[in-house]
């Protein structure tokens, strides 16, 4: 059985990505990051998601990007809550410098140890069009890097970064996940949950999620604080 | 003054690289990693080296590659001590999967926060010919990745990875460092120091270092356990 390293955040995109990797016949090795997030609840969601979808193993890499500062998800600056339509050209303040580059670098290291050549990441160029490291050009550049960066690459492994969600809408992702048996009640998306761990229902991430379920004609099974 | 992120391990290559970045007029931001090394002494050497050469700031990123296993420097397998000439085609067992990819990813993140476009790394394709991620092809692929991976790159920053040592012999590096005032007594190279922190004088790294000083006609100022 071919092995793949699958990045799992605990959100619904990575849950669907993990389900797709399993459907495609891979033995999935789930990799999550604890990168100075404000909410440990994300870590717990990642554990539940990986276990529920049958990941063969699950590793957590603790990486502290707060030593550099510079992002809404790692600093104590306010998470945006707005009705304004975001300028598609603008890079959101929730952008974390080089985050997916760092994530894929770790995935590549684990691949080499496992003898795997496949990495799955739930990057999406539709809802996250502002993130440079969610675009096909980035994914392609990383594949080219992997080929020359590693012992395995030099010895002939062809690394492939799978991005099954890259051109899907949030509604498509939710429909696909539901079709593959993802239990969305285990997932967590909110940037700004309550002390009890309830999703706020108002941040960008909650709004995109709720609108996705609405478009998909499905019910979001998680409880929200403000609804 | 232009800023640069400079990777500093505490060894003589990175000390010379840092001195070169300062000579070239950069304000140097030193970045070191604590990646589950067996020897905290490397961390202390990095601090001394960065301070002595006038780094503007110094950050340590704690990254634990032991969660994946797979290398002599992170696992408890024996460090090679041998007189045998290494096959130039062979990748040493001290190779750490994707290590420089991970290191440069962190450097890239800090660059974005600092508004810097320059990274210095003491990669060397002569003495470390077996490491895929010490070759010009790797460095070039990482520059191409940086251009598409980041907000800064998308907005026009041209990232450059400086590898001033890439084709220098160890003797050349030592001569260059000495010329630029590097205090080699502050540096640490040994893979297998004694409990007191003395270099063993027998591991690959010590042997390359000692031979380098010999070829350069200079005296290695650090004490050794076995000589």
Question: Brief overview, please?
Answer:
With 227 residues, chain A is an alpha/beta fold. Chain A is built from seven helices and five strands. The first copy, chain A, has a single domain (3-216), classed as HUPs (Rossmann fold), CATH 3.40.50.
Strand-helix topology:
The structure is a homodimer of 227-residue chains.
Chain A: E1 3-7, H1 12-23, E2 27-34, H2 41-52, E3 57-62, H3 99-114, E4 118-120, H4 136-149, H5 151-154, E5 160-162, H6 170-179, H7 204-216
Parallel strand pairs in A: 1-2, 1-4, 2-3, 4-5
Helix pairs in contact in A: 1-6, 6-7
Which residues of chain A form runs of ≥5 with pLDDT under 50? Answer: 75-79, 82-88
Strand order of the largest sheet of chain A: 3-2-1-4-5
Order of helices and strands of chain A: EHEHEHEHHEHH
Q: In CATH terms, what is the fold-level topology of chain A?
A: Rossmann fold
Average pLDDT of chain A works out at 88
Helix-strand category of chain A:
alpha/beta
The protein's oligomeric status is: homodimer
Rg of chain A, nearest Å: 17 Å
Shape annotation of chain A = globular
Number-wise, the strands of chain A total 5
Number of domains of chain A: 1
CATH class of chain A: Alpha Beta
- Give the distance, in angstroms, between the N- and C-terminal Cα atoms of chain A: 45 Å
The description of the largest β-sheet of chain A is: 5 strands, parallel
Strand content of the residues of chain A, in percent?
A: 5-15%
Biggest interchain interface, per-side counts:
A-B, 45 and 45 residues
CATH fourth-tier homologous superfamily of chain A:
HUPs
Task: Tell me the CATH architecture of chain A.
Answer: 3-Layer(aba) Sandwich
**Proportion of residues in helical segments of chain A:** 25-40%
